[in-house]
Amino acid sequence: MNYLEGKRILVTGGTGSLGQTLVKRLLSGELGRPSKITVFSRDEAKQHYMRLDYMHRKTATDDVIYQNSQDVLNFRIGDVRDFPALLASMRQTDVIFHAAALKQVPSCEYFPFEAVMTNIHGAANIVRAIRENNLPVEKVVGISTDKACKPINVMGMTKALQERVLIEANRDCPNTSFLCVRYGNVIASRGSIVPLFVEQIRNRQPLTVTLEEMTRFLLSLDKAVDTVFAAILTGKRGETFVPKVAAARITDIAKSLMGEIELPIKFTGIRPGEKVHEIMVSEEECFRTTERDGYFVILPVLPELRDEQNFTPALTGEYSSKDNNISIEELKKLLGESSNEIARFLVDK
Question: Per the residue annotation, which of 103, 139, 147, 159 is the catalytic one?
Fold first, then answer.
């Protein structure tokens, strides 16, 4: 459990919802205390407030950036599209958690090449930096999404290709292990449905749902990080880790948050690029999916990368959010456990 003891860690997209939770867990030392954690992202404002939070300061003074550069946690402004900036941040790195992405489905539909540049080219830049410079990177974990499985939208298509870029890199970079993690909607993350419902309920507005049939996988930020840690500890080259998590109807999520408050649900129609149901393991992938420590593990699509040759598949069909939806009461418990803010909201209202 001390794999990260003394390691130098880079977190791309480290100012995002997952990135911030991941950094806090890394700083806790549960996998060993890293010697250095670098947050690499484009957003200087988020970096600023994340830095102040780490330093337990409410306001900044002139020495704040210099002082922070001496700490375990430090920050670099840069974009994964920018190869020189990325390479500079990777030169003294042992482990990379690659979370930088364009992830909003409608935005990617309207700006598809921007998604290509960040989600695909960004991953390719990480591989290129390691390959061309013989960097001493031991492991790279790419953060993917259920939308990469049988993708119908630009975000999912680019994430699917990001997975393939990283998995194939195991052939070109024999001293580095590349793995992926694929999971569903993170409860209470920025841009997700739960904070929108909470705001609508507080303002006594109709709750907007695209389609009555729509379902989604749901997991907390900590469960997402648990999956990343499982991959870093037990994952083999080219594998993709998938958590076993609850799935629910979006209308039931709305009802569970409303409680005794009765507000209308307004169906707005499906958005550009949106799926009715999400899939985390496809029917094609299920035959090369095994189970390890409570997670589904998809073995590499390239047969030469597979260590396990003789195994019994853990699934006989696709792993979809349309199946085994949890009840409203179960949803209330899940939502309350996933976020202190949501737990307070469920009590206060």
Answer: 147
Residue 289 to residue 135: CA distance in whole angstroms: 31
Residues 105-144 as b or e (16 or more Cβ within 10 Å = b): bebbbeebeebbbbbbbbbbbbbbbbeeeebebebbbbbb
Q: Which domain holds residue 179?
A: 8-184+221-243+280-320
Residue 248 lies in a domain: no
Mark whether 244 is an active-site residue.
Answer: no
Express as a percent the part of the chain with pLDDT over 70.
95
Whether the pLDDT of residue 67 is over 60: the answer is no
- Does the residue 93 lie in any domain? yes
Of 127, 121, 77, 103, the closest CA to residue 18 belongs to 103
Q: How many distinct structural domains can be found in the chain?
A: 1
Task: With respect to residue 71, please indicate whether it lies within any of the assigned structural domains.
Answer: yes
Tokens encoding 336: 């309350």
Among the listed residues 254, 246, 233, the one whose alpha carbon sits nearest the alpha carbon of residue 319: 246
CATH number at residue 158: 3.40.50.720
Q: What is the pLDDT of residue 132?
A: 97
The model carries a pTM of 0.91
Q: Mean pLDDT over all residues of the chain?
A: 91
Whether the pLDDT of residue 63 is over 60: the answer is no
Residue 253 lies in a domain: no
